[in-house]
Amino acid sequence: MNKLEKQEGVYYTQNIENLPIEERVFFREGKGVSATSEHYRVATQTEISSWKEYQAEQEVQN
User: Fold this and answer.
1) What is the pLDDT of residues 9-41, one digit of tens each?
2) How many whole angstroms separate alpha carbon 34 and alpha carbon 37?
3) Which of 3, 12, 29, 48 has the greatest number of C-beta atoms within 10 Å?
4) What is the distance in angstroms between the CA of the first residue and the CA of the last residue of the chain?
5) Between 31 and 4, the higher pLDDT residue
């Protein structure tokens, strides 16, 4: 079990294929037992961009 360490410019996300961006979580550092490389991976730039666009849309709606 490898804990996910904080790395500059790196976000982690669930290791689940085809999970919609609005259901996906992103974080910079794994805290706790469940935040391991078994369940999470480094997010792609495309995922991060989509997530940021989704966040911006949600802010406009609220």
Assistant:
1) 899 999 998 999 999 999 988 765 566 778 889
2) 9
3) 12
4) 39
5) 4
C-alpha radius of gyration, the chain, whole number: 12
3-state secondary structure of 13: strand
As given in the structure block, the two tokens for residue 5 are: 């360490």
* DSSP class per residue in 1-62: --B----TT--EEES-TT--GGG--EESS--STT-BTTTEEEPPHHHHHHHHHHHHHHHHH-
CA-to-CA distance for 14 and 19, rounded, in angstroms? 8
Q: How many CB atoms lie within 10 A of CB 12?
A: 22
- Give the closest residue to 37 by CA, choosing from 53, 61, 13, 7: 13
